């Protein structure tokens, strides 16, 4: 179970980074892409960050450091 949780945390971190990079790069280009998808990408980033934090919290509650 511990390995599954670690893999989920890593995947959620990568998803968060993907949302962040695509949103920031879209803003830098100042294109039509940003106008149509910029807000959606940042909302996705917030949701994926919340999932990542929840997974990290679950990990540290289930497997405390030094315990």
Cα-atom radius of gyration: 15 Å
Q: Alpha-carbon distance between the termini?
A: 16 Å
Instruction: Report the principal-axis shape.
Output: elongated
Number of helices, where a helix is a run of at least 4 consecutive DSSP H or I residues:
2
- The parts where pLDDT drops under 50 for at least 5 residues are none
Specify the helix fraction band: over 70%
Relative strand content: under 5%
- Encode the helix/strand succession as letters: HH
Q: Total number of β-strand segments?
A: 0
Structural class: mainly alpha
Major sheet: size, sense and barrel closure?
none
The residue-averaged pLDDT reads: 92
Write up this protein.
The chain has 67 residues and is mainly alpha-helical. Helices cover 88% and strands 0% of the residues. Helix 1 runs antiparallel to helix 2. The radius of gyration is 15 Å and the shape is elongated. The two termini are 16 Å apart. The model has no long low-confidence stretch (mean pLDDT 92).
Reconstruct the topology from this structure.
Blueprint: H1 2-29, H2 32-62
Helix pairs in contact: 1-2
Could you give a short description of this structure?
This protein is mainly α and 67 residues long. The protein contains two helices and no strands.
Describe the structure using short key phrases.
67 residues, mainly alpha, elongated
């Amino acid at each position: 179970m511990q390995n599954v949780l670690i893999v989920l945390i890593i995947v959620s971190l990568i998803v968060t980074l993907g949302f962040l990079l695509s949103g920031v790069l879209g803003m830098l280009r100042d294109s039509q892409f940003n106008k149509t998808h910029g807000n959606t990408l940042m909302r996705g980033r917030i949701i994926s960050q919340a999932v990542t934090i929840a997974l990290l919290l679950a990990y540290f509650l289930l497997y405390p450091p030094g315990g």
